[in-house]
Amino acid sequence: MGSQLATFTLAGAHYGIDMFRVEEALRGQARTPVPLAAPSIAGLINLRGKVVLTIDLRTRLGLEPLNADLEPMMVVVSVDGEPISLLVDDIGDVIDVEGRQLEAPPDTLPPWLHEVILGVYQLEGSLLLVLDIDRVTGDLAAFPTDLRN
């Protein structure tokens, strides 16, 4: 894992992913639905002429849906050399974690989250959950619903 994490929030929790995997952060864009796709597939977007799959991280992680009045943000990450857009509540900062100790995920996290969290860093007043982007985006066909089921 790199020494810098790009951060974002989902349902009030702080998450981070390796900065080297992040291509860009965007405001929400119009998405084209994908018929018969898993519920966590939020659709497809056109990103400068390239069709990019969009995953709703709230649905994927078994969280409550975002309030319909709010527009999610997008974090575009590289997975196996291809861009994938992740819907998040809000974009955070890039945090340098060099010298900090990555700790095991707390037992208070739901079991399905333990499978996609690499560990946590303690920050002032909160925990930063480090997301395993490959596990979250991997084999969507194997997870026809969300990770909770």
Write the layout of secondary structure elements.
Elements (H helix, E strand, L loop, with lengths): L3 E7 L2 E6 L3 E6 L13 E7 L2 E7 H4 L12 E7 L2 E7 L1 E7 L14 H4 L2 E7 L2 E6 L1 H5 L12
Parallel strand pairs: 2-10, 5-7
Antiparallel strand pairs: 1-2, 1-8, 3-6, 4-5, 6-7, 9-10
Can you walk me through this structure?
With 149 residues, the protein is mainly beta. 28% of the residues are buried. The strands form two sheets. It has a five-stranded mixed beta sheet with strand order 8-1-2-10-9. The two termini are 29 Å apart. Strand 1 (4-10) and strand 2 form a beta hairpin. Helices cover 9% and strands 45% of the residues. The protein has helices at 57-60, 111-114, 133-137; strands at residues 4-10, 13-18, 22-27, 41-47, 50-56, 73-79, 82-88, 90-96, 117-123, 126-131. The protein has one domain (4-137): CheA-289, Domain 4 (OB fold (Dihydrolipoamide Acetyltransferase, E2P)). The radius of gyration is 15 Å and the shape is globular.
Shape: globular
Largest sheet: 5 strands, mixed
| H/E element sequence | EEEEEHEEEHEEH
> Per CATH, which architecture?
Beta Barrel
Low-pLDDT runs of 5+ residues are: 141-149
For the record, the count of structural domains works out to 1
Number of strands: 10
